[in-house]
Amino acid sequence: MLIWRINLRTGSLQREAVPEPWSRLGGRGLLARIMVDETPPACEPLGPNNRLIFSPGLLVGHMLSSCDRISVGGKSPLTGGIKEANAGGTTGLQMACLGIRALILEDQVPAAGETRNDWRVLHLSLDGARLELCADLAGLGVAESAVRLLRRYGDHVAVALIGPAGEMRLSAAGIQNLDKDRVPSRIAARGGLGAVMGAKGLKAIVFDAKGAAKPPIADPEAFKQAQKLFIRNLADHPQTALYRDYGTAAMALTCNAMGALPTRAFSSGSFEGAESLSGEKMREVIQERGGEGAPSHACMPGCAIRCSNNYAGADGKSLVTPLEYETIGLMGSNLGIADLDVVARMNWEVNDLGLDSIDLGAALGVAARAGLMAFGDGARAMELLGEIRKGTPLGRILGHGAAVAGRVLGVLQVPVVKGQAMSAYEPRAVKGTGVTYATSPQGADHTAGNTVRAKVDHLDPKIQAALSRAAQISMAGYDTLGACIFAGFGFAVAPEVIPGLLNARYGWQVGGDILQLLGKETLSLERAFNQRAGFTAADDRLPEWMTQEQLPPLNAVFDVSETDLDGVFDW
Amino acid sequence: MVVQVCLHTSLQRRTAAGLVRHLELELPAGATLADLVSALGLPADLKGVLPVVNGRIVEPSQALAEADDVHLIPALSGG
Fold first, then answer.
1. Cβ separation of A485 and B57 shorter than 8 Å?
2. For chain A, N or C: smaller number of CB within 10 Å?
3. Do B9 and A450 touch (CB under 8 A)?
4. What is the dihedral of CA A347, A351, A354, A358, to 10 degrees?
5. What is the mean pLDDT of residues A134-159?
6. Within an 8 Å CB–CB cutoff, is residue B73 touching chain A?
7. Which of B8, B45, B50, B76 to mutate to test the interface with A (most CBs of A within 10 A)?
8. β partners of residue B50
9. What gap in Å lies between CA A148 and CA A203, rounded to an integer?
10. Average of per-residue pLDDT across A114-128
11. Is the pTM of this model over 0.95?
């Protein structure tokens, strides 16, 4: 596999051998390595010196269940630090088939002024790279843009694209990817990488692997054996059935029971309407309504878990795919909204704008605290999202996420770390996840190390740092493999599977500790980048109000000691 | 004493009236979570199940009290 490096100012493509220090990394780990080696840490995230990097994980390219994720990275305009956001869909698979270990986008397509209408599509195939004008897509939502791009380039391609939010360079803009059914719904959402892409002048990247061979496997028989064991373990695991039947939305009642469901702008951990937002209810509704709805759906080809879904309205027509727990938490209970149909419509809207539903949900919560909407008023929430599409000053404020909204609107209780909004696990009630929010180089992000599943007292402050450390190392490892979080429980049954797959794929001889080694290396690199960008221990804290204001109903505060927080990465 | 029980996801019970996830359960005074689990006919080791009583994850030996809010949650890794 090769590094494809494209200078967007000149349009030149260089295909380079993978340098030795990068050769055993992929996905998040490789992004971190490239950022440390090449990107000036003090650079302006929306300027020409930032890089936008795409890298499939080490196991991507073989339709191995839940292991075809694409990592996207750069310096975040939201956090000011390193950023990796990953997504399912088909981008990773097509990149791996094209033999691209990492796509490094340098510089920017020159812009005539602040408002750009000369958007480009970057088309990548075995023939190389070409930049094409796509003025007709300017200002268009992600859904219509994807339809036009597929018409132009064919149904077989993968596409990564931005919506109006990325064009406006809003800090909560993400990069959408097509799922296996070509719906642009798999968003590398967090940290504003859509704004970085917009700043570079790219509306879309098309990956066309037509004619490409599958990535080589050094020992196909050994790979097949390891794959077989993994799939069996995954299929037999009770969590697979749970995710298939209820999706991530099953977490709504779980978190509500633990007093950890963000409610009314993180002012409570329990929501009286939680039942109406639950995975259990969602499954009933989808099954009753029929039509285009489906309680289970695979976002990547070959996925055995199928945790995704298609949520249809009363007329049986799809409202959004998928409807996930994080959106339900941030745009439902966090806004006092107890109606899944309303949440689904909001979800579609932010998807189409190309925005992170977590940061937008948190920003709307801030807006509600500021009196711009009443909690529970879904129609007003949709109006506020409409402001973003119109590009009004208020819309742009919200589109920059919760941290900016809090600053502008004078709200102090803002649920962010390093400028990035927390996901739907209240850190005062699930304190291990709170430690992850505080200390992850990525900013507040449950996917960096969620501890909610641990059978421990989540309110005991003394045990949380160790839990978070283990979770963060594992997650950084999985993100480097290109594995979905949920592949983790399949891997955990037989730890020999990961080294087995890697050794068979690459002819390596790694041992049973490879996941931890990859995770630690990744985290160390990310922290090194952030330190050079100016981050200190003071950035590894939850917002002060969460250490002071009690969270009902358990009346908990975040009280993990600063010593524990500072020791998370001492391994 | 009477405790409130919520059975999550795959532990919901299919009855003639449809799926049931909320129950009121009468238990003798001094009953523990393990007694409740046994009364429901669930595996005693609660493997893969998070038992939450009044918002906290507890051990099977936890003594229950009148009006306790008990959730039995098949564990998921998050969302």
1. no
2. C
3. no
4. 40
5. 97
6. yes
7. B76
8. B73
9. 12
10. 91
11. yes
User: Per the CB < 8 Å rule, is B73 touching A254?
Assistant: yes
Return the closest-CA partner of residue B70 out of B54, B58, B49: B54
DSSP codes of every residue in B32-66: BHHHHHHHTT--TT-TTEEEEETTEE--TTPBP-T
Q: Check CB contact under 8 Å for B79 and A325.
A: yes
**Cis peptide upstream of residue B28 (ω within 30 degrees of 0):** no
* Cα–Cα distance list, A484 to A80, A299, A304, A305, A477 (Å): 26, 11, 12, 10, 11
Query: Percent of chain A, pLDDT > 70?
Result: 100
What pLDDT, in 10s, does the model give residues A66-75? Answer: 999 999 999 9
Determine the residue of chain B that is closest to A556 in CA distance: B55
Show the tokens assigned to B61.
């030996």
Q: What angle do CA A374, A378, A380 make, to 5 degrees?
A: 60
Among A241, A304, A233, A305, residue whose Cα is nearest residue A492: A233
ipTM score assigned to the predicted complex: 0.95
Query: Is pLDDT above 70 for B79?
Result: no
Taking the C-alpha atoms of residue A161 and residue A86, their distance in angstroms, rounded to an integer, is 14
Enclosing H/E stretch for A72: strand A70-75
Cβ contact B6–A257 (<8 Å)? yes
| Averaged pLDDT score across all residues of chain A | 97
A239 vs B contacts (CB less than 8 Å): 48, 74-77
- CA distances A6 to A14, A54, A55, A123, A194, Å, are 6, 12, 14, 11, 18
Digit-coded pLDDT (tens) for A230-280: 999 999 999 999 999 999 999 999 999 999 999 999 999 999 999 999 999
Is the Cβ of A248 closer than 8 Å to some Cβ of chain B?
A: yes
User: Are B76 and A258 an interchain contact pair (Cβ–Cβ within 8 Å)?
Assistant: no
State residue B15's pLDDT score. 78
Per-residue pLDDT at A111: 82
Interface check for B32 against chain A (CB to CB < 8 A): the answer is: no
Select from B10, B56, B78 the Cβ nearest to the Cβ of A242.
Answer: B10
What is the distance between the alpha carbons of residues B18 and A462, in angstroms, rounded to a whole number? 43
Q: How far is CA A457 from the centre of its chain?
A: 28
Residue B52 in this model has a pLDDT that exceeds 90 = yes
pLDDT at A487 over 70: yes
Between CA A334 and CA A478 the distance in angstroms is 29
